[in-house]
Design brief:
5-stranded parallel β-sheet; Rossmann fold; two-stranded antiparallel sheet; single chain; 4% strand; 6 domains; mainly alpha
């Protein structure tokens, strides 16, 4: 199978199945699958005659050599051409060349020859690597490809990304995404690869299909299982490596030397490269042949490699001696100011044995500069060069920590496995346990994570209390993720035993966080509130090493638990920004989860979905499977709330195996399905799902998720056998809501009490009116509309249709503006039941536009600018532009005026 090339295969089939002729140019970097697509075309050619050729560098200096090989099977038909064309064609293909004044005649002769052959039997004409062969052939084929509309001839050409003759439909082969990369590996690996291994190999291959195939064929079963280190480049003796070696072998010696220096330098600036060229006895202009072939791009700020794998393959295919000499030369050219880490890394790459002084230099340089990835590499190499086993172990743990921060959990695990089993330094042991526990929490087995984290806290308690608090903070996360809230008291007890006067702000924040969360989980909101608010205040006082993404996310949790949604969003957003600035990929999924929850409570559902999509992408790319499940679950809830059934079920299917019972992804999935049940008129099923999210009195289940879902539980269970569970859940919600100063929480509480009150009673009406008073103006429009809808339904069922209509009209208008058409249709149905004549939704818009597109269309039709739409929907203007283009295309219109008429 050609993974990830469905669109290109479809374009080829469309050409081959068409009545007339046509052409297609496939652009891509080496290994992207150009030749495989030509093979696909040949297999699907049907009864067409196939003429196939390949551009050969060895014949690039021979004009029309490629054309001669391509046309050889049909040259005997040239007798049917006009005499002038026949003479020029024969002379050119015989090697006599073509005068400039007769090139048009030659091109027309080739076109005519293909037309003659095509009348006997339709033709498929392909030329692979057209840019590598002789230029005259490429020019003639481009001429022909532009003139095939009414001929039974299809031409498919392939070339590099900079091959772009005008007038030919072109498709650029993009890197494979993660799903298709994993599929390629699964097709080729001897045993199934673990998730971290597949993610790492996908990163190494950069989405290049041939690189994935070469890696898969070179891997051992132990590497597939993640028990041995993985290669950091595709194998130099694989098909891709051989192709690059041949390509580089055609360059002059000076060009290859400079190209290797540029690749070893990794963002080497132009001035340094000029000095390197001079040191090797050449000049920077020696890179010109590499520029011409598209391998590099020389710019004022330095040299870049446009093709993702080119840099790695230039280094991998170079001889060891050349690489070592290059590292030493670059180290000599880099001074200490601003380049200390890069200089030390070059020296380490050329080192031949233990060098304690260089190991110390690497360690010190890594403290002051570099990305987490570079620091990990430096510290790993420092461990190799160390003469002391204790220092080596400490450096290995630091290297693993930075690898984890960079989003490379597989590498971090392998580094921790290199630690000596007889390590006696408690600091090293506790740091290693903390790292293992955090990786297990984010990537896999939560029970294992909790055990490792508590062990790390125990080991570090006497020597490194700051590490102990970090371990306990993560242990609390593990308890909540798994739904074992009854164990949180033990975590908080351990933290209280470590407290001491005069602790730094970071430690004080963690202590307040743990104490506040523990009090919240046992329902003691009077004690929890001040403690959690203290954590929020402390977050603004963090400086220096105390100001970490983990501390800010802890404060964001505290803010959410006291319903301070704005500060929670601000703190989570700061954590995201800080993690990005430091390159700490590992911290992003958790910070983005909290930002999405804050956006949900603020009523910014579209913004929450964008945040969760980003969190899912980062969690998957960094191997954080557990947090990928959390973001999928949150996206499923948001899709269900928007009544997007297809997206909800797709996200749940993507979860694969059922998440662990009582875990957060499991609870979010159940909540999403319950919302769909409610929309479909199945309140009993919805109530059963939501009532099972947590089990009061046992400390098990997802209490916080059930609190968020309580309004849906009460709505579903108000008139069902699950009413007692709804009453119990509302009691928990009330105790929390009334301990906060949040108007939106009190509005939801009042709405829930109204739903549980007897139908038509004064208590029900007063509850709904109180809820409408509590809903904050200008925020949470969706929840306010839900209250208006439920109030209108209550009034209609109480035989007060006139009073019901106003609330139902307002609800329907808001739902329509928000693009949640299913809720709008429910409001319209209630209006019709209340005696109002309500037309159905616009058929074209309802059928052709998604909910979000319909909302954008209605705002634009109402006169809003793209910027105003973006602000109202919490989107970027680029996203609004994209939606508007799709709307125009789907509705077959071209202007905003036409859009207003259609709607």
């Amino acid at each position: 199978m050609l993974r990830g090339r469905d669109e290109e295969c479809r374009a080829i089939r469309d050409l081959l199945d068409g009545a007339g002729g046509g052409a297609l140019l496939l652009q891509g970097e080496p290994g992207s699958g150009r030749t495989a697509l030509l093979g696909y075309a040949h297999r699907h050619a049907g009864d067409r005659t196939i003429l196939a050729g390949t551009g050969l560098t060895d014949e690039a200096a021979l004009p029309y050599a490629g054309l001669q090989r391509l046309l050889d099977p049909v040259r005997d038909r040239d007798g049917r051409l006009p005499a002038a064309q026949r003479r020029v064609l024969r002379r050119s293909l015989a090697g006599a060349g073509c005068p400039a004044g007769q090139r048009l005649t030659l091109s027309m002769a080739v076109l005519g020859l293909l037309a003659v052959a095509g009348r006997e039997r339709p033709l498929l004409c392909t030329m692979d690597d057209v840019d590598l062969g002789d230029r005259p052939t490429a020019e003639v084929l481009a001429f022909v490809a532009r003139r095939l509309r009414h001929l039974p001839v299809v031409v498919v050409l392939t070339g590099a990304v900079d091959t772009a003759p005008g007038g030919i439909p072109t498709r650029r082969l993009r890197p494979l995404d993660e799903h298709d990369s994993r599929a390629v590996l699964a097709d080729r690996l001897p045993v199934p690869a673990s998730d971290p291994v597949a993610t790492t190999l996908g990163t190494v291959a950069a989405g290049n299909p041939q690189a994935l195939v070469d890696l898969a064929e070179a891997l051992s079963p132990a590497q597939c299982r993640g028990e041995e280190p993985l290669p950091d480049t595709p194998p130099p003796d694989g098909a891709l490596g051989r192709g690059y070696r041949a390509r580089l072998g055609r360059l002059p010696d000076d060009t290859r030397r400079l190209l290797l220096l540029a690749a070893l330098g990794d963002r080497v600036d132009a001035a340094t490269l000029v000095r390197a060229a001079r040191a090797t006895g050449t000049v920077i202009e020696a890179l010109t042949p590499a520029e011409v072939t598209g391998l590099v791009r020389v710019e004022p700020h330095g040299v870049t490699f446009p093709q993702p794998l080119a840099r790695a393959m230039v280094v991998a295919t170079a001889p060891l001696a050349a690489r070592r000499a290059g590292h030493l030369l670059l180290a000599a050219l880099l001074d200490d100011s601003g380049h200390r880490l890069r200089r030390a890394l070059h020296l380490a790459a050329a080192a031949e044995g233990p060098d304690p002084a260089l190991a110390t230099e690497l360690e010190e340089a890594a403290r002051g500069e570099g990305s987490p990835d570079a620091r990990s590499t430096a510290l790993h190499r420092a461990a190799d060069l160390s003469g002391d086993r204790v220092r080596a172990a400490a450096r290995l743990v630091s290297a693993a920590h930075h690898a984890w921060a960079a989003g490379r959990p597989h590498q971090a695990r392998l580094l921790t496995q290199l630690l000596p089993t007889d390590t006696t330094d408690p600091a090293v042991t506790s740091r290693a346990d903390l790292l293992r526990g955090e990786m297990e929490l984010r990537c896999g087995r939560t029970p294992v994570a909790l055990t490792a984290l508590l062990a790390a806290a125990e080991t570090a308690a006497g020597t490194a209390p700051d590490l102990a608090f970090q371990a306990l903070l993560r242990a609390g996360e593990a308890v909540c993720f798994a739904g074992d809230q009854y164990r949180y008291a033990d975590v908080e007890r351990r933290a209280r035993a470590l407290c001491h006067a005069g602790a730094p702000a970071g430690t004080e924040l963690v202590t307040a966080h743990l104490a506040g969360v523990a009090a919240t989980l046992r329902g003691d909101h009077e004690a929890a509130g001040p403690t959690l608010r203290r954590a929020v205040v402390l977050a603004d006082r963090l400086t220096g090493p105390d100001r970490t993404p983990a501390a800010l996310t802890g404060a964001a949790v505290a803010a959410l638990l006291v319903a301070e949604d704005g500060p929670a969003h601000r703190l989570a957003d700061r954590a995201v920004g800080l993690a990005r600035a430091r390159g700490e990929v590992c911290a992003l999924p958790r910070a983005l989860e909290l930002r999405a929850i804050a956006e949900y409570w603020l009523g910014r559902h579209e913004a929450a979905a964008e945040t969760s999509r980003e969190g899912l992408r980062i969690a998957r790319s960094s191997g954080q499977a557990t947090w990928a499940g959390v973001h999928r679950g949150m996206l499923a809830v948001l899709a269900a709330v928007r009544a997007d059934r297809e997206a909800t079920l797709r996200l749940i299917r993507e979860t694969g195996e059922e998440p662990a019972p009582d875990s957060r992804p499991d609870a979010l999935t159940r909540w999403a399905l319950a919302v769909l049940d409610l929309l479909d008129g199945r309140p009993e099923e919805a109530a059963a799902r939501l009532a099972a999210l947590a089990r009061p009195g046992t400390g098990r289940g997802q209490v916080t998720v059930q609190v968020m879902a309580t309004p849906y539980l009460v709505e579903a269970a108000a008139a069902s056998a699950h009413r007692p569970a709804a009453v119990a859940a509302l009691a928990v919600f009330d105790r929390w809501a009334h301990s906060t100063a949040s108007p939106s929480r009190r509005a939801l509480s009042a709405r829930c009490h109204a739903l549980l009150a007897p139908r038509g009673s004064t208590a029900a009406e007063e509850g709904f009116r109180a809820a409408l008073r509590w809903h904050p103006p200008g925020a949470g429009a969706f929840e306010r509309a839900r209250t208006q809808f439920l109030f209108g339904r209550e009034l209609r069922r109480s035989r007060r249709p006139r009073d019901a209509r106003r609330h139902l009209h307002d609800a329907r208008e808001t739902f329509t503006r928000l693009g949640v058409t299913a809720w709008a249709e429910q409001a319209a149905a209630e209006l019709r039941a209340a005696g109002e004549s309500v037309g159905g939704p616009d058929p074209a818009a309802a059928r052709l536009l998604t909910g979000q597109q319909l909302r954008v269309a209605q705002l634009v039709a109402g006169g809003a600018t793209n910027r105003e739409v973006a602000d109202l929907m919490f989107l970027s203007t680029r996203t609004v532009d994209h939606h508007l283009r799709n709307i125009f295309h789907r509705l077959g219109i071209r202007s905003r005026t036409q859009l207003a008429r259609v709607l």
